[in-house]
Design a protein that fits this description.
The chain is an alpha/beta fold and 208 residues long. It is built from six helices and ten strands; from the N terminus they run H-H-E-E-H-E-H-E-H-E-E-E-H-E-E-E.
Amino acid sequence: MRSPADRLVAELRGSVRDERVLSAVLAVPRPLFVPEQLSGEAWDNVALPIGCGQTISQPLVVARMCELLELEGTERVLDVGTGSGYHAALLARLAREVHSIELHRELSERAGRALAAAGAAVHLAIGDGCRGLPEHAPYDAINVAAAARGRVPPALGEQLAPGGRLVAPVEDDDGEQHLALLRKRGDVLHRTQLDRVRFVPLVPSGPG
């Protein structure tokens, strides 16, 4: 009899081909990252509320975003929008070094406990994800787990290393969201629009 984790990975396999990503999904205990009352749904391929108006994203979307970053295990990664910490936990299995920033202190602290329980080494910060974490830049890959309006915040593109990849949901004027994949070639960012998605908005902490 297959475990819930095995069933989820089998479901994802039709859309996600990177075996390293699928192995990470299998290895990271998703129930650690959801509210206790929702633990019975932790391995379902659905988004779940985690408090502060935020969600833990659908596993398919998380896995797809990880796959788009094309991680080989040597990269320094920035994760914008720690949320539950689940996305960061997967990235920690796929890259060498992961920094994750979250606007809500409560969520960051809760994610820190979940990440520790999962054995995932992630450097956590509290602050405005729109500004990134310039003190640790440049990053080989940047993951943005909240929807930017119109375009990815310029500060994030500036913190991407040459040859780096950035994946983020971007909302257009009609309210539709799609994943955007940005590749940095020299000083130029090349953008490709991909899957339609639905994320909570990326909210700056304030002006300036």
